Amino acid sequence: MSIEDRIRDQFAASIQTKQTAVDAMAGPIAAAVQAMADCLKAGGKIMACGNGGSAADSQHFAAELVNRFEREREPLAAIALTTDTSTLTSIGNDYRFEDIFAKQIKALGRRGDVLLAISTSGNSPNVLEAMAAAQPRGIRIIALTGKEGGKMAARLAATDIHLCVPAARTARIQEVHLLTLHCLCDGIDTLLLGEDA
After folding, report:
1. Which pLDDT tens digit goes with each residue over 66-99?
2. Rounded CA gap, 74 and 66, in Å?
């Protein structure tokens, strides 16, 4: 198989995964949009965390809210818990890597905030610890996963929202995660600003 054929196969697999995911995810994504918009309207903030590509997704999402997505608006309160290297390395060095997000949630999180917890497997120990820190503080969790949700799925409360990509391959899950983040941004802007002109 040529490289060009492999590229075409990658595109085809990505398209198929997105088509499969839309029916399973459209409703939960809409619920997540509403939860996030309600949080922001009430003066809360959205915190996001994840590892590797999911850390990059956390930062991408927070940047779209603090700066802008596709429409001009006031900045929205969001923070990626993946960006402060001094905090991350001091917690990882002095305590455990599993605590790097949980300790930030304990310091910064307030009742009514939202945690966007991202893990393609649903099994990231530090994201699970972040969830455990958020729940008793009245911080609603929106879990963005794949592979049937892993351990994260079992730890969600009835008021939390699970956005699970129905796929097993990490690259395909990550591609749907990015689209999901853009859907969240567009939906938040629509609820806060009204429909596009």
Report:
1. 999 999 999 999 999 999 999 999 999 999 999 9
2. 8
